Amino acid sequence: MTLCHSIDTLSMAFLDDELAAEERRELELHLHDCAGCRDHVERERTDLTVLRKALVAPPAGALLKARIARALDAEDAAAARRHRGRVSQWLLPGGAIAAAAAAILVFVGLGTSSPHGTSPIARDVAKQETHSLPFEVQGASTGPWLRANFAPVEPPQFTEPGIALLGGRLLPNGIANHDAALLSYLVSIGANRVTLIAVVLKDLRNTEGLDEGQAYRVGDLILHVHDVDGVPAVTYVDPARNIGYVFASERLTASELLRLVVSTDLIARARQTR
Amino acid sequence: MLAAREKRAEFERQALVHTDALFGAAYRLTRNARDAEDLVQDSLLRAYRFWDSFEQDSNCKAWLLRIVTNTFINEYQRKKRSREVLDAASAEQDATDGVLMHADATDRQSPERALLDRSVSDDVQRALEGLPDDFRTAVVLCDVQGLSYKEIADIMQTPVGTVMSRLFRGRKLLAASLREFAVAEGYVKSADDKAPDGKAADDETIDLAKYRAARSAHEGSNS
Predict the structure, then answer these.
(1) For position A226, what pLDDT does the model report?
(2) Considering Cα of B39, then B41, then B43, then B46, what sign does the dihedral take?
(3) Which member of B41, B168, B175 has the closest CB to residue A51?
(4) Does the structure show a pLDDT above 80 at B197?
(5) Strands A163-170 and A180-189, bridge-based pairing
(6) Per-residue pLDDT, A132
(7) Is B80 left (phi over 0), alpha (psi -120 to 50) or beta?
(8) Residue of A nearest to B199 (CA)
(9) B28 and B136 in contact (C-beta within 8 Å)?
(10) Taking an 8 Å Cβ-Cβ cutoff, which residues of chain A contact chain B?
(11) For residue A263, what are the CA distances in angstroms to A165, A200, A221, A269?
(12) Is residue B22 packed enough to be buried (19+ CB in 10 Å), middle (13-18) or exposed (0-12)?
């Protein structure tokens, strides 16, 4: 066996740097002695240089990179919708209250409503959703704490199963010049946990923009749904006590949040007093 | 939400940095900037959807190139064939209807797109046109992307010997087509200055593993 017989294979592997060190040394010694194989390797080297130079491709354009970014954004949004869809599958069959709430929710086109309107207060509250500051009070002590430190109101209780009041804290800067208290709830969805917050504001002079967004009638009450950059918020104003409530959850859809809010004792009590 | 943001950031850090390289491969595989853009976008979207299956310590570029190659072979080629059938049917319909068509369909496209399409009509792309897909893929992965025989074999799911054979034959065909380019670049004196290498290598002769086996057998018989 001579290296000349295998020069096609060896030359190619040599130029592609695929030979083992010993094979490379052996070939280099052979090329030193064999003019025919040396010429062969040099021709191959020239052809390969020409080929690689010719095949250099242009870089991707800025427009393509922007298109890819948009496609990934759309993929993220679709994944978020699928996730919320899974939440919805769990929540919607959950008990008669949700079904009853669904039946009585009627979208009403009030004059002040705008399809994607968002009150500054709802926007401020939705931002609180992403903050993770410590609670001042936890669990069952939250109700007495709220009455003693904030206002004579009860924390809204959800009648839907799997939703627990975790605790609360006062918001030191308030919201839009109003004293405000934040209550946090844990919504259990199978193995997943979703947080939901309710911010209570006192001394409202009027609805102060909480009646922007889409209006939904529940019996004779009106709730408003706001979209804060994809985070839904549901607002309700108790005009008798000048108290406002803003519910928000980054992980729920607007309709899921709305149905949960309707299932609270807050709404049930408000309807009974009318 | 946090997990989704982390996934996106990690994908941008590890995968999107290879966009230029992927476009280079796609451009040479499809021979067309528009199709290359579609191929890269489809492949990256697919990679993003299957990001969880990417083994974090492995070669991300090779993983992405595998997706580009598979997408090209499995989907792009099929789409292209359907489009050609539709184009042919459309042309036939236009002729039958006696509709006066623009000679250059790019007139109806954006100026940027038209420029892009014209710029790819070069000698290299024409030379690539003449190559079978398997040969072109092997050449692109090795000579555009610089992958090793083993990495190419993994992507194309063929033995290393087959990769070498495809590379060898693909390069020979391309070298013949690129003779004018080589003259223009000053690598050879004239288009007639061909290498006196008339041997047509085939799968039997180009295989490092076979060479090594023969060498071992030879050394064994001598000892």
Answers:
(1) 85
(2) negative
(3) B175
(4) no
(5) antiparallel
(6) 62
(7) alpha
(8) A8
(9) yes
(10) 1, 6, 8-10, 12-13, 16, 18-19, 23, 40, 43, 46-61, 63-65, 67-68, 71-72, 75-76, 79-80, 250-251
(11) 15, 17, 13, 11
(12) buried
CA distances from B162 to A4, A54, A107, A173, B154 (A): 22, 24, 66, 71, 12
Cα-based angle A165, B6, A63 (whole degrees, multiple of 5): 130
A86 sits in which H/E element: helix A62-91
For residues A211 and A112, the answer to whether their CB atoms sit within 8 Å is: yes
| Torsion sign (Cα): B121, B125, B130, B133 | negative
Q: Does the pLDDT value for residue B58 go beyond 50? A: yes
**CB atoms A12 and B168 under 8 Å:** yes
Are residues A9 and B206, on separate chains, in Cβ contact within 8 Å? Answer: yes
DSSP per position, B145-194: T---HHHHHHHHTS-HHHHHHHHHHHHHHHHHHTHHHHHHTTSSS-TT--
Dig out the tokens for A108 from the structure.
């009403």
Q: Which residue has the tokens 């009860």?
A: A154
* pLDDT per position as a tens digit, A76-95: 888 877 666 544 444 444 44
Rounded distance between C-alpha atoms, residue B63 and residue B74, angstroms? 16
Taking CB atoms and an 8 Å limit, are B22 and A60 in contact across chains? yes
pLDDT digits (tens, 9 = 90+) for B112-159: 444 444 433 467 778 888 888 899 999 999 999 999 999 999 999 899
Amino acid (one-letter) located at A189: I
Q: How far apart are CA B163 and CA B139, in angstroms?
A: 9
Contacts of B211 (CB under 8 A, 6+ apart): A6, A9, A10
Q: If we measure between CA atoms, which residue out of A236, A239, A237, A257 comes closest to residue A248?
A: A257
Q: Is the pTM of this model over 0.95?
A: no
Given a contact cutoff of 8 angstroms between Cβ atoms, the answer to whether B144 and B28 are in contact is yes
- Minimal CA separation from B4 to chain A, in Å: 7
Domain boundaries, chain A: 3-55, 73-272
Q: Which of B34, B41, B188 to mutate to test the interface with A (most CBs of A within 10 A)?
A: B41
pLDDT score, position B78: 66
Give A33's Cβ-side CA count (13 Å radius).
8
Domains and CATH numbers, chain B: 1-87 (1.10.1740.10), 122-213 (1.10.10.10)
Record the tokens describing residue A124, joined without a space: 């401020």
